[in-house]
Amino acid sequence: MMIDTTKHQGMRKRLVDTLRTKGIQDKRVLDAIGQIPRHLFMDSGFVSHAYEDKAFPIAAGQTISQPYTVAFQTQLLQVSQGQRVLEIGTGSGYQTAVLTLLGAEVYTIERQHTLYRYSLKQLAALNYSPKKIIFGDGYKGLPESAPFDRILVTAGAEEVPKALLSQLAVGGRLVIPVGVETQEMLLFVRTSALNFEKQKHGSFRFVPMLENKN
């Protein structure tokens, strides 16, 4: 049974207050995090810690990202109502829920079948409705549905996949952590068909983005 109590809601409010003190200013992002029951996207063993600003293990050796990281990436993305957003790395579905609640038309790709099945079930049960959840290789993006107004990568890439840059609409924004041991949060803004503006936004630590080699 999906239970979201007033206690959980109070814990979320305190989490939002914490994120605000850490520099998250986008009210829509904070409101989304304040509404979404993060504890329902986590292993039951970690539920009592769900609203701490920490990452926790989920299935397939992956993690549910630290709320600050989710908020930071989402704030950088600058999502508007109705925009087409491609998310690479569905994971638990928590970040997907945030993007959906912001009014985006979300296409999300997950390469771990266990997590693909889990997020499909969990998002439906909680009435978050991304446009499409795909089991596939995030390095390839989703060319048949491109271009996208926004692209978000939620795992650490060794380099920026060219396929993702090519699938970004002119004026669009790609947020991606790049690096091996630690990652630099990069923002690419496509300024024309051939040109991108690149910005660096600090160091983070993510699980690695894996590529299907076959």
Describe the secondary-structure layout.
Layout lengths: L5 H16 L5 H9 L20 E2 L5 E2 L2 H11 L6 E5 L5 H8 L3 E6 L2 H13 L6 E4 L12 E6 L8 H5 L1 E11 L4 E8 L5 E9 L10
Parallel strand pairs: 3-4, 3-6, 4-5, 6-7
Antiparallel strand pairs: 1-2, 7-8, 8-9
What does the model show?
- The protein has 214 residues and is α/β, with parallel strands linked by helices.
- The chain has a single domain, classed as 3-Layer(aba) Sandwich (Rossmann fold), CATH 3.40.50.
- The chain is 29% helix and 25% strand.
- The chain is built from 6 helices and 9 strands.
- It has helices spanning 6-21, 27-35, 67-77, 94-101, 113-125, 162-166, and strands at residues 56-57, 63-64, 84-88, 105-110, 132-135, 148-153, 168-178, 183-190, 196-204.
- It has a 7-stranded mixed β-sheet with strand order 5-4-3-6-7-8-9. A two-stranded antiparallel sheet has the order 1-2.
- β6 (148-153), α6 and β7 (168-178) form a beta-alpha-beta unit.
- α1 runs antiparallel to α2.
- The longest helix is centred in the N-terminal third of the chain and has 16 residues, at 6-21.
- The protein is globular, with a radius of gyration of 16 Å.
- The model has no long low-confidence stretch (mean pLDDT 94).
